[in-house]
Amino acid sequence: MATSEDFIEFVCEQIRGDYSVRYKKMFGEYMVYVNDKPIFLVCDNCVYVKKLPEVEEILAGSECGVPYNGAKEHYILDIENQELDELVVPVLERITPLPKKRTKKIV
Predict the structure, then answer these.
(1) DSSP code of 60?
(2) Is 98 strand, coil or helix?
(3) pTM of this prediction?
(4) What is the mean pLDDT of each run of 10 residues along the chain (107 residues)?
(5) Phi, psi angles (nearest 5°) of residue 76
């Protein structure tokens, strides 16, 4: 089951606040960017957060799962829990680097 357009829009609305939020479709699912930093992976209408030491305490009671075959285990974020969102998003935004620009090779 792929993520619905309604769900990805809902995820972005939940975290919008003071941030620039956008999403990009990737391999049939979505990456959510906050201030141009890749923060959440959304697969099958489920929000995944990479297991990082900085969010371990905040998400200690959260479910875990694998977003796709071959991926490492991630935390599953209860996106409807506004208080939790407000704790997790600033930490992830602060520690996540901006993606490096790719240069195309001319052959």
Answers:
(1) T
(2) coil
(3) 0.90
(4) 91 91 92 96 97 96 94 97 95 94 78
(5) -105, 120
